[in-house]
Amino acid sequence: MQLHGKRVILTGTASGIGATTLETFAREGAAIVSLDVQDEAGAANAAAADDLGPGAVSYLHCDISDQAEVVRVVDEAAGRLGGLDVLVHMAANEKNVAAEDVTEDEIDFIMDVHVKGTLFLNAAVFPHMKGAGGSIVNYTSLAGISGYPGNPIYGAAKGAVLAWTRNIARDWGRHAIRSNAVAPFVMTPMAQLAFDQAGPEEMEGIKEWFKMMVPLGGWLGETQDAANANVFLASDDSKFITGQVLSVDGGFVMVR
Ligand SMILES: NC(=O)c1ccc[n+]([C@@H]2O[C@H](COP(=O)([O-])OP(=O)(O)OC[C@H]3O[C@@H](n4cnc5c(N)ncnc54)[C@H](O)[C@@H]3O)[C@@H](O)[C@H]2O)c1
């Protein structure tokens, strides 16, 4: 059990990478408070995960784009856990908007969740980690590193998340707070939504491109691949690693 005794907040646990991470962290012995806005799935996933390991797992509603709510919920979660060692922040939304069609509403829709949500959450966990240290894991994307067609606001938001992650690694290292990012490429409802927006002809092109670019299998990985990276970055096995991005993408992006 690599996370035995760790007190953890996970976001985005109603779906995708967050749901698999919740199960995996429970099996690895963590005590967890999970956050999402999809309350039915969020609460059901937490109840199921509670049976998987020794640590208590519970759920709280939290819209991460609302700073007052984030501060209140993080304080309540840290109170329930008796402190806080780890935040793995995976919650996010997505909407494809062409660069030439950008409007203020479209920008706010993505930036409020990805950028403001990440900054609100990271700032809210700081007071709970600064005494004994901790590990923050944020979620970026290959769209924020090398670029990806069709979703430039999302890419800009993920670039901001990565830059923020590296800047707080510099600022909070003196408090023994580590801050790293994961850039996944795995099959989830969010990834499926992006494919659903492409027509059949475009989809054929995408498949050919992935075959060429992803040395391991030519396609997306599984949510468990990202959950395993989260375990590593949350655990003491990564205690000398901060300010890094870990790509879990079969080799799609080889720069950082
Ligand atoms: N799947 C991929 O290949 C891929 C690629 C690049 C980056 N990512 C990133 O990985 C992370 C996880 O993605 P996923 O594919 O598992 O997504 P997902 O859509 O399956 O899950 C996202 C979760 O976030 C929650 N959420 C949305 N808005 C919220 C809000 N305002 N407050 C709280 N929770 C909210 C949703 O309810 C959902 O449960 C995201 O940050 C995503 O941008 C995923």
Give your account of this protein's structure.
The protein starts with 6 loop residues before the first strand and ends in an 8-residue tail after the last strand. It has helices spanning 16-27, 39-50, 67-81, 104-129, 152-172, 189-196, 200-213, 223-234, and strands at residues 7-11, 31-36, 57-61, 86-89, 134-139, 177-184, 245-248. 46% of the residues are buried. With 256 residues, the chain is α/β, with parallel strands linked by helices. Helix content is 47%, strand content 15%. It has one domain: Rossmann fold, CATH 3.40.50. Strands 3-2-1-4-5-6-7 form a seven-stranded parallel β-sheet, sandwiched between helices. α4 (104-129) runs parallel beside α5 (152-172). Nicotinamide-adenine-dinucleotide (NAD) binds at residues 11-12, 14-18, 36-38, 62-65, 90-93, 113, 139, 141, 184-186, 188-191, 220.
Overview in brief:
By secondary structure, the protein is α/β, with parallel strands linked by helices. Helices cover 47% and strands 15% of the residues.
